[in-house]
Write a structure and sequence with these properties.
With 425 residues, the chain is an alpha/beta fold. It has 14 helices and 15 strands. The strands form three sheets. It has a seven-stranded parallel β-sheet with strand order 3-2-1-4-5-6-7, sandwiched between helices.
Length: 425
Amino acid sequence: MTPSTKAAFRVAIACGGTGGHLFPGLAVAEQLVRRGCTATLLISPKEVDQEAVRTISGMEIVTLPAVALKRGGEIAFVRGCIRSYRAATKLFKSHPPHAALAMGGFTSAPPILAAKRAGARTFLHESNTIPGRANRWLSRIVYCAFIGFPTAAGRLRNRNVAVTGTPVRSQFQARAAADCRAELGFDPARPVLLVMGGSQGASGINELVLQSLPLLASRAPVWQWFHLTGPRDAEKVSQAYAALKLRAVVRPFFAQMELALGAATVAVSRAGASSLAELAAMRVPAVLVPYPAATDNHQFHNARAFEATGAARLLEQQSATPETLVQLLLDVIEKPAVHEKMQSALVQWHSPHAAERIAEAMLAPAGAGAGEGYPRADSQPVARPAFRNVDSEINPKSSVLPRANHLRTSAAGGYRVVLHREGVA
């Protein structure tokens, strides 16, 4: 079979459960498709996943019967894992992937195990400062781990760790704020505050903002609001803005986040790694209110990393008051020097080529870019992963982060990620 007639290099990406897993996975999938690959996104039945993929084209979408782990729901979780593994195994028998990527979360482990059994080379990406349980476990068996924060490396048991940053979709680029505001129905000349709790909304942030609105209405009546509430609070939040005669657009969910961020002067946001990456890409200063029940309190550590570099303000939900939130917002919006300093600090957290680097690193061992020939992934066994801590090599406050630019053949016949330093554009 000639290269021109060879079937496309197939990649499966397990990225469902939340927007924080799905959207970075989608960004990588877009880069793989551009390189002539066939990409399959493996997602969950959750509404947030199903809503987010409605407009996606050019790749296959497969829903697996995965169930999140909740207290008292251990049996359902295990049953969902077994069913997901069987479904993925059946899928891969007819369309075996050459590579598979886990983006973390409850949907990721079963299909990665199934892909590995089918002979695929497996990878993971961890966006947060503290890796989730699924990725910590998978790090022992995957070929290579990509990470968004350098400090995550010491918590993964894998000898091939590459700091890539967190991928964002290609549409997240600087835009004219006035144009974005006009498209959303706002006055282009007035500030816009974006309130978002992640892809599923956040009742804690909704309540904090509602409690702050009377004070904000008196001190900053010209501000405009774009509030993403999640599915439960939209009507209540909309009524609160209307009662105070504040100009606001309230949505339970909004797919065009690049437009919302482009319009925003400042954001009030949770501190999931994907949201932070999008804020950095669009240079939107934020007051970060970490989700207090996040596993291992990882959102707090994400937010603290941004705060330490001056890229955001940190406000813990347990101690937050309306007065504190209002003062933080006033400082950022009404003091141009503060706003500009935060925008400058966000530059170091933006990794504009993260998705490309991951796609290239996944293809490099097989020589599969641009439709070239490739061996089966199981043709070269991978040595047992060993613990590697690269914290001592990397300064998390530095604007210079290492990346994996290629994979180099080692003396043992396998591959290792070569890290080198490159300034962030």
